[in-house]
Design brief:
Elements (H helix, E strand, L loop, with lengths): L3 H16 L5 H4 L9 H21 L7 H5 L10 H21 L2 H4 L2 E4 L2 E6 H25 L12 H4 L8
Antiparallel strand pairs: 1-2
Length: 170
């Protein structure tokens, strides 16, 4: 059985997609002040998942150059929306088998990268990814409001059916 934290990652991903339904390429590339654009956010979240679940876990990179384009601390960019959705789907599809195989001992473990042990456990990184999605989801909905979009998601979706609380079991 998939660990409940992994179910929560899947759920927040689905909520992120729901929050961005109907955004056009032109809208997704628009910046307001110092805020990053929506297409950047999509690629940025893909970059984080690629780094954590592929690169740190085993060295694999399925979307080369993503970090240079949308990584933390990199210069602002306004990448094409479809390009970022393709990258996001490639990364999340590639990470799913790894995430689905995680067990409690794995979540309590720490990655090593270039011989240095990471400060946060794999489980904490899962929590960090979920928080990162919720953060950028709220930011993207604020941008959509500034763009004049209406009828936006008002509340967390059907978590009770898609990712209800359940105890972790091995």
């Amino acid at each position: 059985m998939v660990h409940p934290l992994v179910e929560q990652v899947r759920f927040v991903r689905s909520e992120f997609v729901r929050a961005l339904d109907g955004v056009t390429d032109e809208e997704a590339r628009q910046r307001f002040g110092s805020m990053n654009c929506i297409s950047w956010m999509i690629g940025h979240l893909a970059d984080q998942e690629q780094r954590y679940w592929l690169q740190l876990a085993g060295g694999e990179i399925v979307v080369p150059g993503l970090n240079d384009l949308v990584g933390y601390g990199k210069p602002a960019s306004t990448p094409p929306l479809e390009e970022m959705w393709v990258a996001w789907r490639r990364v999340t599809n590639a990470t799913d088998p790894y995430l689905e195989a995680l067990k409690i001992p794995d979540l309590l473990s720490f990655y090593e990268f270039n011989g240095v042990k990471r400060d946060e456990s794999v489980g904490t990184l899962l929590l960090r990814v979920m928080g990162h999605y919720w953060f950028h989801m709220g930011e993207s909905l604020a941008i959509r409001q500034m763009l004049g979009h209406t009828n936006l998601p008002q509340f967390v979706g059907d978590i009770g059916a898609k990712a209800p609380f359940r105890p972790a079991t091995e």
